Amino acid sequence: MALITKKIKGTEDVLPKQSYRWQFVENIMREEARAYGFKEIRTPVFEHTELFARGVGQTTDVVQKEMYTFDTKGGESVTLRPEGTAGAARAVLEHSLEQDGLPIKASYFVSCYRYEKPQAGRLREFHQFGIEEYGTQAPAADAEIICLAQSVLDRLGLSQVHLEINSIGCPECRARYNQALKEYFTQYKDRLCPTCLTRLEKNPMRLLDCKSPEDKEIAKDAPKITDYLCEECEAHFTEVKKYLDAAGVEYTVNPTIVRGLDYYTKTVFEFVTDCIGAQGTVCGGGRYDGLIEELGGKHMPSLGFAMGMERLLMVMDAQKIEIPDNDKTALYIATMGDAAKVKAFELLRQVRECGLIAETDVVGRGLRAQMKYADKIGAKYSVVLGDNEIEENKARVKNMETGEQTELALDESFADKFSVLQ
Ligand code: ATP
Ligand code: MG
After folding, report:
1. Which uninterrupted H or E stretch holds 144?
2. 109, 152 in Cβ contact below 8 A?
3. Cα(192)–Cα(209) distance, rounded to whole angstroms?
4. How far is the CA of 308 from the centre of ligand 1 (A)?
5. Using 50, 70 and 90 to split pLDDT, how confident is the model at 83?
6. Mean pLDDT of 254-269
7. For 43-62, what is the mean pLDDT?
8. Ligand 1 pocket: which of 281, 282, 291, 310 to mutate (most atoms <8 Å of CB)?
9. How far apart are CA 92 and CA 194, in angstroms?
10. % of the chain at pLDDT higher than 70
11. pLDDT category, 57, cuts 50, 70, 90?
12. Where are the beta strands (DSSP E) in 14-55?
């Protein structure tokens, strides 16, 4: 039979010897989210297509071009989630989470699916860590989630990742701004890409998010949203910056950040780096005060961010940040004979209960092959159990790197004494 060895384009495997890198990053994210009072939410990988159409926005690239949508056998249209917010918002509404008190604070790890052109830092299946907060309009909340994102990046040891913030106002500010943009871009109609021509009619602000170099150049001199903010939005933005200053978080105001999704209002932000090529945004977020209403709920101002796991790992690689590999086997027990095999099970249990990684032969190899394997997996210590050791009830544990040997009794004290050697 033909071998099936090809994964789907734009997807990646995380192999057993690489997963410690993911776990290191995820653990830091979990700890930081916890420290700020966010609890994990887990939602399904697919949802009714309409949820994303409404929650992400009809005029976005994600909804127009990138969704994995299919009809089920029952004839329902479902979509693999392209992002984490819509599902979380749906769950908030479905379970009336506001009853537990506001704000609702949730964090998530999700795989996302977007039919994009695969390239470095742009996949069709990728992963995000994200934060969701529902039921607060206070600028302190905006500043707080930005601080949380910054804490994660700091703890990962990243440098040269810059925070850029902007305010895209409320629907009223935006109506005036969109009009100004329309007038500005209409002058350059002949030079805009075809997608931007439709954006010009439907949602001119999206033009600022275009990735084509020529459109980017034109966008440089476009009117700035910050000149069109109403009093309330302006005051909100000022407050957010005040808190960030107080927390010592550095940022630049970049009036061209508009974010790719339709539901954003007021604060938007991105953490950007230029050390991994063109796809340099490692985190994007902001406020989406209209989202819950868009999904049929009562007005509930909300905010959040999402970090791209693959891109963060790329930055860590590019910056040569060492990630401790705690997955190395602490003790390999090689055995000769049945009695030794049985004894090994007793000792393994003790050692594992101490939180150490311990292994023995489960293949049926001879002693030499067992030692070769111990070497290959990089075991820190090994011990050989044979009839002699069982009889004398002691054995010599060997440090595989230095060759140093330590004699230990094969009784209840074994694991404790072995732990001390670590
Ligand atoms: P971009 O402008 O790079 O397309 P986006 O605005 O579409 O990003 P969001 O929807 O805000 O991205 O997602 C948040 C984060 O998820 C991004 O900042 C990025 O780190 C990551 N991300 C988005 N799309 C992809 C993808 N196709 N492959 C890998 N990571 C991605
Ligand atoms: Mg995108």
Report:
1. helix 139-156
2. no
3. 13
4. 6
5. very high
6. 86
7. 93
8. 281
9. 38
10. 100
11. confident
12. 39-40, 46-48
Please tell me the residue having the least CA distance from ligand 1 atom 6: 260
Assess whether the C-beta atom of 260 lies below 6 angstroms from ligand 1. yes
Does the beta carbon of 308 lie inside 6 Å of ligand 1? Answer: yes
- Ligand closest in space to the Cα of 309: 1
Any bridge partners for residue 78, and if so which?
Answer: 48, 70
- Residues 57-69 as b/e (b if ≥16 CB within 10 A, e otherwise) read beebbbbeebbbb
Report the nearest-CA residue for atom 11 of ligand 1. 284
With a CB cutoff of 8 Å and minimum separation 6, the contacts of 378 are 328, 329
- Helix H or strand E encompassing 186: helix 171-186
Is ligand 1 within 6 A of the CB of residue 209?
no
260, pLDDT greater than 70 = no
Q: CA-CA distance, 341 to 381, in Å (whole number)? A: 18
What's residue 223's pLDDT? 95
Phi, psi (5° rounding) for residue 70?
Answer: -150, 160
Instruction: Note the Cα 342 to chain centre separation in Å.
Output: 43
Interaxial angle between packed helices 139-156 and 231-246, expressed in degrees from 0 to 180 and rounded to the nearest 10: 40
Distances in whole angstroms, Cα of residue 406 to Cα of each of 79, 134, 331, 353, 392: 59, 58, 13, 21, 15
Ligand nearest to the CA of 270: 1
Position in ligand 1 atom list of the atom nearest CA 211: 2
For 250, the 3-state DSSP assignment is coil
pLDDT of residue 263: 75
Q: Round to the nearest angstrom and report the end-to-end CA distance of the chain.
A: 48
What pLDDT sits at residue 176?
93
Q: How many CB atoms lie within 10 A of CB 249?
A: 18
Pairing between β-strand 77-80 and β-strand 69-71 as defined by DSSP bridges: antiparallel
Q: Note whether 359 and 377 are within 8 A (CB).
A: yes
Beta bridge partners of 334: 384
Ligand 1 close to Cβ of residue 282 (< 6 A):
yes
Q: From CA 179, how far away is CA 157, in angstroms rounded? A: 43
State the average pLDDT over residues 12-26.
97
pLDDT grade for 315, boundaries at 50, 70 and 90: very high
Residue 124 has phi, psi (to 5 degrees) of: -95, -30
Round to whole Å and give the CA distance between 383 and 256.
Answer: 63
Q: Ligand 1: does its nearest atom lie under 6 Å from the Cβ of 273? A: no
Dihedral, 89, 94, 97, 102 alpha carbons, nearest 10: 50
